[in-house]
Amino acid sequence: MNRVGFATVNPSTGEEIEAFSYFTPAQTEKVVARADKSFQSFRELPVHKRAQLFTDLGNTLRKTKAQLAKVISTEMGKDLLRG
Amino acid sequence: MADEPAPTGTVNAYVSYLPLGPILAIMPWNFPIWQLTRMAIPTMLAGNVVLVKHSPNTQRSSLEFERVMLEAGFPEGVFQNLILKRDDVVNVINDGRVQGASVTGSVRAGSAVASEAGKVIKKTVMELGGSDAFIVCEDADIPKAVAAGIRGRFHNAGQVCLAAKRFILVGKIADEFERSFVEAAKSLRVGNPFNSAMDLGPMARADLRDSLHKQVEGITAKGASLLCGGKPVGGKGATYRAERSNRRHARVR
């Protein structure tokens, strides 16, 4: 870990997985501004529509489960079978 | 989410539920994606949007979750990652557009975020560490209690906020429970988390394994006896032998 970024490490092997750079203040500003802007429309969405999005998310998570589990186990060593 | 009337008898009054705005989520590595769903569902159902600062060691998991949210049809910008240095988190807490913070993690992290949020009068939700006792009574079904204790102590390589961190055994059954528990702990197979024959993967980071080992050395130095495990597994990873060493002699009658 240093001032510009960090690398993730596979705890099973001690090997580096990938490197990430910390966001610059300008990048952070862009993300926070986008959040603020999206909030203005997301808050107007009826609650049943927001709930439907989470039902859809559940389906997408089930569909991508194997791939996500692999990322998790590689990054923090979680037992793949038992979660 | 609908307004609720608040009868005053004189004026038309009601309680209205309104979303706050962007909420900063500081999330841990132990359940990298589950934690995000747990935070995002109530927060976003209520109409708020989420900014996530995840643990560095599980950054990809968090980015993958953001991608899956978009794939599921969520609008852009309602759930986003911020890859931040710890020192930069305070700037986001102070940002006038950010309305609150939610932390799952250590007491130290929670305290640091709550202090910063408190200075600018922002709401926080904290889910911090526990130190839960697993109590075995005299009339317990010992094999069942041992199985539950093993699950409670070693699930996710023991890295669970509500893991069974201390075992309190009633005197009469203490020896029997201890014997079966140690036997069961010894039989746990530790190794590659992708191998389905293993019961336990490594710990999430080598430094966490090292600090656990220091704690084990600390208590054995103070007179606790090591009943099994208690040492790092050789090699480059962060694997630790399942341990249950810290029998203390305070007994509950």
Characterization of the model:
The complex is a heterodimer of chains A (83) and B (253). Chain A is an alpha+beta fold and 83 residues long. Chain A has two helices and two strands; from the N terminus they run ββαα. A two-stranded antiparallel sheet of chain A has the order 1-2. The longest helix of chain A is centred in the last third of the chain and has 30 residues. The model of chain A has no long low-confidence stretch (mean pLDDT 94). In chain B, helix 4 links the parallel strand 6 and strand 7. In chain B, helix 5 packs across helix 6. Chain B starts with a strand and ends in a 32-residue tail after the last helix. The C terminus of chain B is likely disordered.
Key traits:
heterodimer, A: alpha+beta, 2 helices, B: alpha/beta, two-stranded antiparallel sheet, 16% strand
The overall average pLDDT of chain B, rounded, is 90
Radius of gyration of chain A: 18 Å
> How many whole angstroms does the radius of gyration of chain B measure?
23 Å
Low-confidence stretches of chain B: 245-253
What is the terminal separation of chain B in angstroms?
A: 51 Å
Shape of chain B: globular
Number of helices, counting only DSSP H or I runs of 4 residues or more of chain A: 2
